[in-house]
Write a structure and sequence with these properties.
This protein has 169 residues and is an alpha+beta fold. It is 22% helix and 32% strand. The protein has a seven-stranded mixed beta sheet. It has a three-stranded antiparallel beta sheet with strand order 3-6-5, with no helix packed on it. The two termini are 22 Å apart.
Length: 169
């Protein structure tokens, strides 16, 4: 079971969200796909704006680094973040090509079932921090009733003034 919020973030909106997230110097970002089971300091980023090779990025707090779990990925020799068992927030960034802006998503799990089928809650301080990210989006963005998504200020201006397409698929 998890929490999510869907959004449309134009590049300028992402920059503003990035500034909010990384004002806390203990937050890092890592790509979804890694080269090994160990998160290398070289893979840590202090931004979600960079080229991660995918629109999916995970963010976490430094104090949670030891609890970030990595599992074998789909491609030979690749590893991916196990967001279910890790105190991480998945951010699937909006795709923007100047003509369309595709929906993005912020998601985190509240807990998981362990190997003994016992429910394990994620740490309460992690959940509070992650929920704060959701609250920021809800407080800063407009909810579009048509799509049910929260739309950043710059994305909304682009959509309304320039007729840009907000795409939910």
């Amino acid at each position: 079971m998890g929490r999510q919020i869907n959004f449309f973030m134009a590049p300028e909106d992402l920059k503003e969200f990035d500034s909010f997230v990384f004002r806390d110097k203990s937050v890092s970002a890592i790509p979804n796909t890694l080269v090994s089971t160990v998160v290398s300091p070289l893979e840590l980023a202090r931004t979600i704006e960079g080229d991660f090779g995918s629109l999916r990025v995970y963010i976490f707090r430094e104090q949670d680094l030891e609890r970030v779990r990595i599992r074998r990925g789909g491609a030979e020799g690749s590893w991916v973040v196990d967001g279910l068992r890790s105190p991480t927030v998945e951010i699937f960034r909006s795709y923007f090509d100047g003509q369309i802006l595709r929906r993005g998503r912020l998601f985190f799990d509240l807990g998981y079932c362990d190997d003994n089928s016992e429910w394990v809650d994620k740490p309460s301080d992690f959940l509070s921090w992650a929920q704060g990210l959701v609250h920021w989006i809800r407080g800063q963005y407009v909810k579009d009733e048509k799509t049910g998504c929260y739309v950043g200020t710059h994305a909304w201006d682009w959509h309304v003034k320039e007729g840009g397409n907000l795409v939910t698929m």
